Amino acid sequence: MKKGWEVKKLGDVCDILDSQRKPITKRDRTSGKYPYYGATGIVDYVDGFIFDEPLVLVGEDGAKWAAGENTAFHVEGKCWVNNHAHVLRPHRKAVFDSWLVNYLNYSDLTEFVSGLTVPKLNQGSLREILIPIPPLPEQQRIVGVLDEALASLAIAQANTEKNRQNARALFDSHLQSVFTQRGDEVALSELATEVTDGDHSPPPKAMSGVPFITISDIVKRTREIDFRNTFIVPDDYFRRLKPSKKPQIGDVLYTVTGATLGIPVLVKEQRDFCFQRHIGLIRPNPETDSAWLTYALLSPQVFRQATLRSTGTAQKTVSLSVLRSLKISKMGLEQQRRIGRELGEVEAETQRLEGIYQRKLDALAALKKSLLQQAFSGQL
Questions:
Q1: Domain assignment of residue 342, given as a range
Q2: Are 244 and 194 in contact (CB under 8 A)?
Q3: Judgement on whether residues 111 and 151 belong to the same structural domain of the protein
Q4: Contact, 341 vs 290, CB < 8 A?
Q5: pLDDT confidence of 299, banded at 50, 70, 90?
Q6: Residue 318, SS3?
Q7: How many CB atoms lie within 10 A of CB 182?
Q8: Which among 179, 120, 174, 211 is positioned nearest to 326, based on CA atoms?
Q9: Quick one: which H or E segment has residue 328?
Q10: Cα–Cα distances in Å, from 7 out to 2, 4, 92, 276?
């Protein structure tokens, strides 16, 4: 700790005004001009207010508290706060609002959070958080440097993220244009020798044997299988499976359930593994190119069919009958191969650009972390 700095508990440098909070159910709210704050920011606008001063809010529940999660934020003027955010009035002869917000957002507060089902940063734990307190002129100087630097970093991050999204959007646009309806359509079942799903029985687990793939093992962004954390089934279980339940090179897997519904994965290497019933398997016939079929299933036209025809309330599911009947524009094998190659090249370039922008985002995040670490250790 730098000479002249102190360390104090948050409860000793802030008034906590939680007793003044008042939640209003959505049914009972009357729309108005005053912001209604919750754990992470504005959730509505109402016709009344209970606070009218500069304050600092910190998520109590329904927030995230790891370093960089921005669980603390400023509010100012007339507003209403529900009971999901703590309300802090800093002792401004000891600590500036911006110093407190920046420090809380820089810090990993998860050690102060309790509860498994509903994680919560309760008021007692909040009061115990230790805050480094430099003299006010030093706080003001550091906050000034941080405000300028963090604003520049935020602009750089926003621009880089936009570039990353634009690269992906170009590929998505090209993909859509390729599969815009051209003449006749055929059902997916006419392009395959097998359209099935994984074993419906709970598989036995083993210490060694064959990987068993679930939806969580499929990486949505890259459409690849991550074999690192799969559980293992015995070899004899795998041997008893039908050939259609054992993926081979050229097969296309397809997620049929939940938030990750509609991800096609081309099997590119021969290795033994099996998969759960929430994943479909399409085995192309000799007149169907596997790469082309993968992109067809990825296209907005086919994805829209799958989502519109999925069933279920809590968890949407594409049934095997729906999967088999998905309509795809009919193309000759040579045209399929050409389109598969072209889309592969476009996607590879897209992934290269996305990788460049992601590395830049990672570098900006590391720079921000380093800057904040220097600020709160007295090195800035």
A1: 135-173+332-380
A2: yes
A3: no
A4: no
A5: very high
A6: coil
A7: 11
A8: 179
A9: strand 327-329
A10: 11, 10, 16, 53
The residue ranking higher by pLDDT, 3 or 336, is: 336
CB-based contact 290:318 (threshold 8 Å): no
pLDDT band at residue 4 using 50, 70 and 90 as cut-offs: confident
Domain count, the chain: 3
Q: Any residues with CB less than 8 A from the CB of 376 and at least 6 apart, and which?
A: 102, 103, 106, 132
Whole-angstrom distance, CA of residue 10 vs CA of residue 223: 46
Q: 280 phi and psi, to 5 degrees?
A: -90, 160
In a domain, 178, yes or no: no
| 70 DSSP 8-state letter | -
Give the type of residue at 375. A
pLDDT at 2 over 70: yes
Residue 133's contacts (CB-CB under 8 Å, 6 or more residues apart) are 5, 6, 7, 8, 13, 94, 95, 139
| Structure tokens belonging to residue 371 | 């800057």
Half-sphere exposure at residue 36, Cβ-oriented, CA atoms within 13 angstroms = 19
Measured CA to CA in angstroms, residue 359 lies from 16, 70, 160, 260 at distances of 41, 22, 10, 25
- CB distance 354 to 164 below 8 Å: yes
Dump pLDDT digits (tens) for 81-111.
999 999 999 999 999 999 999 999 999 999 9
Please check whether residue 1 lies inside any domain of the structure: no
User: Looking at the structure, do residues 80 and 193 belong to the same domain, yes or no?
Assistant: no
Band of residue 335 on the pLDDT scale cut at 50, 70, 90:
very high
Examine the domain organization and report whether 101 and 77 are in the same domain: yes
Specify whether 141 is located in the same domain as 232. no
Nearest to 324 by CA among 198, 237, 196: 196
Are 306 and 206 found together in one domain?
yes
Q: Could you tell me the two tokens for 253?
A: 């897997």
Residue with tokens 């097969």: 251
Compute the residue count for the chain.
380
Q: What is the DSSP string of 355-374?
A: HHHHHHHHHHHHHHHHHHHH
Q: Is 150 among the domain residues?
A: yes
